[in-house]
Amino acid sequence: MNKEWSLEELYKGYEDSAFQEDIKKLEQAVATFNRLAGNLDAAQPAKSIREMLLASEELTALAERLFVFCSLKQSVNTSDNDAVAYMGKMEDMLSNTAKADTVLEQFVAAQENLEELIASDDILKEYEYKLKRIKREACYLLSEEVEEAVSKLNASSGTAWSDMHSYLTSTVKVDYEGKEMTLPAIRNLAYSKDAAVRKAAYEAELASYEKIKDAITFSLNSIKKQVLTMVELRGYESPLDMTLQQSGMQKETLDAMFTAMKEYFPKFHQYLKRKGELLGHKNGLPWYELFAPMGSVSRTFTTEEAKDYLVNLLRGFAPDLAEMVERAFDEAWIDFYPHEGKVGGAFCCNVQGLKQSRILTNFDGSLSDVVTLAHELGHAYHNVQIHNHRPGNTDYSMPVAETASTFNETVVMDAAIAAADKEERIALIESQLQDITQIMCDIYSRYLFESAVFDNRNEGFMFADQLKEMMLSAQKEAYGDGLDAECLHPYMWVCK
Ligand SMILES: [Zn+2]
Questions:
Q1: Cβ neighbourhood burial of 370 (10 Å; 0-12, 13-18, 19+)
Q2: How far is the CA of 138 from the centre of ligand 1 (A)?
Q3: How many CB atoms lie under 10 A from the CB of residue 327?
Q4: Whose CA is closest to 205, among 190, 183, 178, 188?
Q5: 28 CA distance to ligand 1 centroid (A)?
Q6: Which residues form the domain of 178?
Q7: What does each C-alpha distance from 336 to 2, 3, 39, 489 come to in angstroms?
Q8: Does residue 430 sit in the same domain as residue 415?
Q9: Are 454 and 224 in contact (CB under 8 A)?
Q10: Over its length of 496 residues, how does the chain's per-residue pLDDT go in tens digits?
Q11: Which of 176, 239, 328, 397 gets the most CB atoms within 10 Å of its CB?
Q12: 79 CA → ligand 1 middle, Å
């Protein structure tokens, strides 16, 4: 079994003539798309829309293949400067389509008999959802010149502030016991078995934010101001209204989720308090103990064992899912092991052109790494479901995106808990509670913080001290008496 993924099916390298030709083709595809936008024929609307949709498909397919190749190369070699250069070049090329995109959207929105047009053309029929959505949301569009300017200016405003945030948080030096560490490395110590290490790492982490808090304060204020400006220009009710519409989600759905969460918060607070007691804390769990491991899991896996384990478990649910998991292991879709210059964490990337996925993990053989594999393979299974869709119909929103992955994770966790001895069972159930507490309490605290930031931003700039206070009050509300109110994380807005 390969331990690294194979990207050869895409290109042999940057020098590969196929890669160089596709870059040229992408430039031509952008030109074709822009030319078609300039020649839309009001007398033949179905033909005009179809031509632009097909041109957009070609452009999307090319851009995806090239971007996927560069970004996957870069994720296993973060100092791959060629990847950065090619991606920058392609982003510039693609920013030149913003005006044509708007022209097409305005043209679609102006069709009074859109339903009839869709019914008259096979390609338009396949894009029915997209076209109707364009028409519905056209009221939020700005003029083509303004859309073009907004798109171009974003590179030096919102995107630039966000790049600065990523740069500062990935390069800030954390002083820990006479050594310098990175933020991800110090935050990882929250999982240490040693209570003293967890506490010292938390203190070092908080101290390191002092070095970058002012720069991040300007970044946060500017990004939020930009969102508010766009909300106002486009005519949305609020940033939340815009996010919901863009995610295809109704306010009622979000409210129903919040109602269910609030109903169950006391259970989570009870869990946190109990964990605090077991670790010797009287006033709730201190922040630095959130990820303290309880119980112990000794079982380890090789990649072959992980494959057999997952294939057997998932076959019981769906044979085609099990088959795909086998292919993922056998056909080098997965890059398993950590090494210098490889990014941390795990992700799954759809490679629509190959009707495959690529998965990156930092596998060290623990059960939780097998659960991570199951999660990412769930994303890959979702990707299989969209491989026969047209290139312009493959987007999906965040709530849908995590469905198959969470399902897979649950199948594996349930099986592992059922087969575990007592110590292991405690460890597994507790680790599951840790994860769910993050989704319930932590995400909710961030929602509260973000809402407060938007509410306050129109009145003026918020300095770091004010942002810290807002974060603390959001955490107190979300975590209730489960956490020690004297030991929270006032800088969560710097780190996430
Ligand atoms: Zn996921």
A1: buried
A2: 31
A3: 15
A4: 183
A5: 35
A6: 163-295+423-495
A7: 9, 6, 49, 32
A8: no
A9: yes
A10: 889 999 999 999 999 999 999 999 999 999 999 999 999 999 999 999 999 999 999 999 999 999 999 999 999 998 899 999 999 999 989 988 989 999 999 999 999 999 999 999 999 999 999 999 999 999 999 998 999 899 889 889 998 999 899 889 888 999 999 999 988 889 989 999 999 999 999 999 999 999 999 999 999 999 999 999 999 999 999 999 999 998 889 999 999 999 999 999 999 999 999 999 999 999 999 999 999 999 888 889 999 999 999 999 999 889 999 999 999 999 999 999 988 888 888 999 999 999 999 999 999 899 989 999 999 999 999 999 999 999 999 988 877 889 999 999 999 999 999 999 998 999 999 999 999 999 999 999 999 999 999 999 989 999 999 999 999 999 999 999 999 999 999 999 998 8
A11: 328
A12: 25
* Secondary structure (DSSP) of 364-380: -SBHHHHHHHHHHHHHH
- Ligand 1 centroid, distance to 382 Cα (angstroms): 11
Is residue 351 assigned to a domain?
yes
Question: Shortest CA distance to 23 belongs to which of 71, 65, 72?
Answer: 65
The Å distance, Cα 4 to ligand 1 centre, comes to: 21
Tell me the CA–centroid distance for residue 405 and ligand 1, in Å: 6
Residue 344 gets which letter from DSSP? S
Q: CA angle, corner 114, sides to 109 and 117, nearest 5? A: 135
Distance between Cα 2 and ligand 1 center (Å): 23
Task: Return d(Cα 321, Cα 310) in angstroms, integer.
Answer: 10
- Looking at 155, 187, 221, which one is the last position of a domain? 155
Rounded distance from Cα 328 to ligand 1 centre (Å): 17
The residues placing their C-beta within 5 Å of ligand 1, an ion, are 405
Are residue 37 and residue 183 in the same domain, yes or no?
no
493 CA distance to ligand 1 middle (Å)? 22
- Predicted model pTM: 0.86
Indicate the number of domains in the chain. 3
- 258 CA distance to ligand 1 middle (Å): 21
Instruction: Measure CA 51 to chain center.
Output: 32
In the reported structure, the alpha carbon of residue 12 is separated from the centroid of ligand 1 by a whole-number distance in angstroms of 29
- Ligand 1 geometric centre to CA of 307 (Å): 19
265 and 169 in one domain? Answer: yes
Q: Ligand 1 centre from 233 Cα, in Å?
A: 33
Ligand 1 mean position, distance from CA 109 (Å)? 34
Distance from residue 447's CA to the centre of ligand 1 (Å) = 19
Q: Is residue 10 part of a domain?
A: no
